[in-house]
Protein backbone atom coordinates (compact mmCIF):
# COMPACT_ATOMS: atom_id res chain seq x y z
CA UNK A 1 0.00 0.00 0.00
CA UNK A 2 2.98 2.30 0.53
CA UNK A 3 3.65 2.34 -3.21
CA UNK A 4 0.03 3.32 -3.90
CA UNK A 5 0.22 6.17 -1.40
CA UNK A 6 3.43 7.45 -3.04
CA UNK A 7 1.87 7.24 -6.52
CA UNK A 8 -1.28 8.97 -5.25
CA UNK A 9 0.81 11.78 -3.78
CA UNK A 10 2.61 12.29 -7.07
CA UNK A 11 -0.66 12.24 -9.01
CA UNK A 12 -2.18 14.86 -6.71
CA UNK A 13 0.94 17.00 -7.05
CA UNK A 14 0.80 16.69 -10.84
CA UNK A 15 -2.94 17.49 -10.89
CA UNK A 16 -2.26 20.49 -8.66
CA UNK A 17 0.52 21.74 -10.91
CA UNK A 18 -1.79 21.54 -13.91
CA UNK A 19 -4.43 23.45 -11.96
CA UNK A 20 -1.92 26.16 -11.04
CA UNK A 21 -0.82 26.54 -14.66
CA UNK A 22 -4.39 26.61 -15.96
CA UNK A 23 -5.44 29.15 -13.35
CA UNK A 24 -2.43 31.36 -14.12
CA UNK A 25 -3.20 31.20 -17.84
CA UNK A 26 -6.79 32.31 -17.21
CA UNK A 27 -5.50 35.26 -15.15
CA UNK A 28 -3.27 36.23 -18.08
CA UNK A 29 -6.22 35.86 -20.45
CA UNK A 30 -8.31 38.09 -18.16
CA UNK A 31 -5.57 40.76 -18.13
CA UNK A 32 -5.24 40.60 -21.92
CA UNK A 33 -8.99 40.77 -22.43
CA UNK A 34 -9.27 43.72 -20.07
CA UNK A 35 -6.42 45.56 -21.83
CA UNK A 36 -7.86 44.84 -25.29
CA UNK A 37 -11.30 46.05 -24.28
CA UNK A 38 -9.78 49.26 -22.91
CA UNK A 39 -7.72 49.83 -26.07
CA UNK A 40 -10.75 49.33 -28.29
CA UNK A 41 -12.90 51.41 -25.94
CA UNK A 42 -15.39 48.54 -25.70
CA UNK A 43 -15.34 48.03 -21.94
CA UNK A 44 -19.08 47.57 -21.54
CA UNK A 45 -20.92 45.23 -19.19
CA UNK A 46 -20.50 42.19 -21.44
CA UNK A 47 -16.73 42.63 -21.63
CA UNK A 48 -16.41 43.17 -17.90
CA UNK A 49 -18.54 40.07 -17.29
CA UNK A 50 -16.19 38.03 -19.49
CA UNK A 51 -13.17 39.35 -17.56
CA UNK A 52 -14.95 38.53 -14.28
CA UNK A 53 -15.66 34.98 -15.44
CA UNK A 54 -12.01 34.48 -16.41
CA UNK A 55 -10.89 35.76 -13.01
CA UNK A 56 -13.42 33.61 -11.11
CA UNK A 57 -12.53 30.39 -12.92
CA UNK A 58 -8.82 31.25 -12.80
CA UNK A 59 -9.02 31.78 -9.05
CA UNK A 60 -10.88 28.51 -8.50
CA UNK A 61 -8.37 26.56 -10.60
CA UNK A 62 -5.35 28.30 -9.07
CA UNK A 63 -6.34 27.80 -5.44
CA UNK A 64 -7.69 24.30 -6.08
CA UNK A 65 -4.42 23.44 -7.79
CA UNK A 66 -2.45 24.89 -4.90
CA UNK A 67 -4.44 22.77 -2.45
CA UNK A 68 -3.90 19.62 -4.54
CA UNK A 69 -0.17 20.32 -4.82
CA UNK A 70 0.19 20.83 -1.05
CA UNK A 71 -1.85 17.70 -0.32
CA UNK A 72 0.14 15.66 -2.85
CA UNK A 73 3.45 16.65 -1.30
CA UNK A 74 2.12 15.99 2.20
CA UNK A 75 0.84 12.54 1.20
CA UNK A 76 4.38 11.58 0.24
CA UNK A 77 5.58 12.59 3.71
CA UNK A 78 2.66 10.75 5.37
CA UNK A 79 1.34 13.85 7.13
CA UNK A 80 -1.86 12.68 8.90
CA UNK A 81 -3.91 15.72 7.80
CA UNK A 82 -3.02 15.03 4.15
CA UNK A 83 -5.19 11.91 4.15
CA UNK A 84 -8.31 13.87 5.08
CA UNK A 85 -7.34 16.70 2.72
CA UNK A 86 -6.98 14.30 -0.20
CA UNK A 87 -10.33 12.67 0.59
CA UNK A 88 -12.01 16.09 0.69
CA UNK A 89 -10.39 17.15 -2.60
CA UNK A 90 -11.43 13.86 -4.23
CA UNK A 91 -15.15 14.66 -3.93
CA UNK A 92 -15.28 17.62 -6.38
CA UNK A 93 -12.74 15.89 -8.63
CA UNK A 94 -15.26 13.15 -9.34
CA UNK A 95 -17.17 15.43 -11.73
CA UNK A 96 -14.05 16.34 -13.75
CA UNK A 97 -14.24 13.43 -16.19
CA UNK A 98 -12.21 11.49 -17.12
CA UNK A 99 -8.97 12.24 -15.24
CA UNK A 100 -10.49 13.84 -12.15
CA UNK A 101 -12.95 10.97 -11.84
CA UNK A 102 -10.15 8.41 -12.06
CA UNK A 103 -8.04 10.32 -9.52
CA UNK A 104 -11.00 10.67 -7.15
CA UNK A 105 -11.87 6.98 -7.30
CA UNK A 106 -8.20 5.99 -6.88
CA UNK A 107 -7.93 8.36 -3.90
CA UNK A 108 -10.88 6.70 -2.19
CA UNK A 109 -9.58 3.21 -2.97
CA UNK A 110 -6.12 3.93 -1.57
CA UNK A 111 -6.90 6.11 1.44
CA UNK A 112 -9.96 4.28 2.78
CA UNK A 113 -7.91 1.11 3.11
CA UNK A 114 -6.99 -0.11 6.63
CA UNK A 115 -3.27 -0.17 5.73
CA UNK A 116 -3.46 3.46 4.63
CA UNK A 117 -5.16 4.40 7.90
CA UNK A 118 -2.26 2.81 9.78
CA UNK A 119 0.32 4.49 7.52
CA UNK A 120 -1.11 7.89 8.50
CA UNK A 121 -1.24 7.04 12.20
CA UNK A 122 -4.96 6.35 12.40
CA UNK A 123 -6.24 3.37 14.34
CA UNK A 124 -8.63 1.09 12.52
CA UNK A 125 -12.03 1.27 14.27
CA UNK A 126 -12.63 -1.81 16.41
CA UNK A 127 -15.86 -2.71 14.65
CA UNK A 128 -13.92 -2.97 11.36
CA UNK A 129 -11.30 -5.41 12.63
CA UNK A 130 -12.14 -8.97 11.50
CA UNK A 131 -12.91 -11.51 14.21
CA UNK A 132 -9.81 -13.40 15.37
CA UNK A 133 -7.39 -10.52 14.63
CA UNK A 134 -6.17 -8.02 17.20
Low-confidence stretches are: none
Task: Specify the helix fraction band.
Answer: over 70%
The average pLDDT value, as a whole number, equals 90
Main sheet characteristics: none
**How many β-strands, per DSSP?**
0
What percent of residues are in strands?
A: under 5%
Quick one: overall form?
elongated
Radius of gyration: 20 Å
Order of helices and strands: HHHHH
In short:
With 134 residues, this protein is mostly helical. 77% of the residues lie in helices and 0% in strands.
Give an account of the 3D structure.
It is a single chain. The protein has helices at 2-39, 45-76, 80-93, 99-111, 114-119. With 134 residues, it is mainly alpha-helical. Helix 2 packs antiparallel against helix 3.
Name its key features.
single chain; elongated
Helix/strand layout:
Elements: H1 2-39, H2 45-76, H3 80-93, H4 99-111, H5 114-119
Helix pairs in contact: 1-2, 1-4, 2-3, 3-4
Amino acid sequence: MSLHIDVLGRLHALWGTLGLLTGASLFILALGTHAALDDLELSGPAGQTAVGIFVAFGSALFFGGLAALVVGLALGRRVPAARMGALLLAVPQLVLAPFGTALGVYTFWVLLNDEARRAFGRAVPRHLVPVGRP
